[in-house]
Amino acid sequence: SLAVLQALEDGLKKADADPSVKAVMICGENGKFSAGADIRGFSSPKAHGVALGPIVSLIESSEKPVVAAIEGVALGGGLEVALGCHYRIAHVKARMGLPEVTIGLLPGAEGTQRLPRLIGVPAALDMITTGKHIPATEALKLGLVDEIVEENTIEAAVHLANKV
């Protein structure tokens, strides 16, 4: 939603400007990282300059480490947010994917560029062209996530953020 995009942008800018902040952790709410964009918003006029692609680039260009704590699902734009992060930790039951192709769309926030850089072209093409959701264990094998945990994903992400 526009509110989430604006909060991400505001939070990242505030964290980058605050010398007491050493790292940033991005998580979802209620056991879900993000199921992606609300497709109803695709047909509405663009909001005043708030778009996912530039926010993912802002995450990626942060001078401070940014860690994604992935629980539940990270799909579509949600996975693209995670791809912009410097590190990704996922709960063992998490699932990730770029399902936009199943409704005739390509990922629009540079997921088609970031995913192949991270996991290689063959695996990325499979995910991008099929819309398949992969479990955290497969994401770890592919290099999509840095670590999987069975317990508190947020605590693990904070621990990693403090370590790096």
TrEMBL record:
- Catalyzed reaction equations: a (3S)-3-hydroxyacyl-CoA + NAD(+) = a 3-oxoacyl-CoA + NADH + H(+); (3E)-decenoyl-CoA = (2E)-decenoyl-CoA; a (3Z)-enoyl-CoA = a 4-saturated (2E)-enoyl-CoA; (3E)-hexenoyl-CoA = (2E)-hexenoyl-CoA
- Tell me, which GO biological process terms does this entry list? fatty acid beta-oxidation
Question: What GO MF annotations does this protein's record show?
Answer: (3S)-3-hydroxyacyl-CoA dehydrogenase (NAD+) activity; delta(3)-delta(2)-enoyl-CoA isomerase activity; enoyl-CoA hydratase activity
Q: Which UniProt keywords apply?
A: Isomerase, Lyase, Multifunctional enzyme
Q: Which SUPFAM superfamilies match?
A: ClpP/crotonase (SSF52096)
What family does this belong to? In the C-terminal section; belongs to the 3-hydroxyacyl-CoA dehydrogenase family. Belongs to the enoyl-CoA hydratase/isomerase family.
Protein name per the record: Peroxisomal bifunctional enzyme
Gene source species:
Machaerirhynchus nigripectus
Q: Which gene encodes it?
A: Ehhadh_0
